[in-house]
Amino acid sequence: MGELTATILAAEEEGGGSSNFLLPNGTFFAVLLIFLIVLGVITKWVVPPVSKVLAEREAMLAKTAADNRKSAEQVAAAEADYEKAMANARGEASAIRDEARNEGRRVIEEKRAEAGGEVADTVRSADEQLSQQGSAAQSELESSVDSLSAKLASRILGVDAKTGGNS
Question: Biased composition, Polar residues: where in the chain (predicted)?
Answer without folding.
Answer: 128-142
